[in-house]
Amino acid sequence: MANTKITDILTWDEDGNVKIKAASQIPDHALQAIKNIRVKREKDGSQTLDVELYDKVGVLRLLAKASGLLDSPDDGSDKPSVIGINVQAPEPIDVEVKDETRLDQ
């Protein structure tokens, strides 16, 4: 559901005419992401097509929670906390050596 694109389900031309693809042309993962399809016929003969997909963010949030990524650290568990660590190396220093004397003698 999280990988479905609207172009998996609909096509449109340069004039903005939108068509739903035949069910045989829609990938299985996209068919599973469709929550509802409604066709509304107007009195003048025109039609309105509504395609509703399941909420991607909600699905991803549910998967993250099920895998333990959204647990709060105060839940009494011994799970390690996830923290960000930024490591910055010190700036290099140029050292000028005046004589060729070895320091390890």
Describe the structure.
The chain has a domain at 6-66. A hairpin with a 5-residue loop joins strand 3 and strand 4. It contains two helices and four strands, in the order ββαββα. It is an alpha+beta fold and 105 residues long. Helix content is 16%, strand content 20%. The model has no long low-confidence stretch (mean pLDDT 79).
What can be said about this structure in brief?
This protein has two helices and four strands. The protein is an alpha+beta fold and 105 residues long.
From the structure above, extract its key features.
single chain, 105 residues, alpha+beta, two-stranded antiparallel ribbon, two-stranded antiparallel sheet, 16% helix, elongated
Number of strands: 4
What share of residues is helical? 10-25%
The protein's oligomeric status is single chain
User: How much β-strand is present in the residues?
Assistant: 15-25%
Across the major sheet, the strand order is: 1-2
Shape, principal axes of CA atoms: elongated
- Count of alpha and pi helical runs: 2
Give a short account of the largest sheet: 2 strands, antiparallel
The secondary-structure class comes to alpha+beta
pLDDT averaged over residues = 79
Overall radius of gyration = 29 Å
The ordered H/E elements are EEHEEH
For the record, give the distance between the C-alpha atoms at the N and C termini, rounded to a whole number. Answer: 70 Å
- Spans of at least 5 consecutive residues whose pLDDT stays below 50 are none
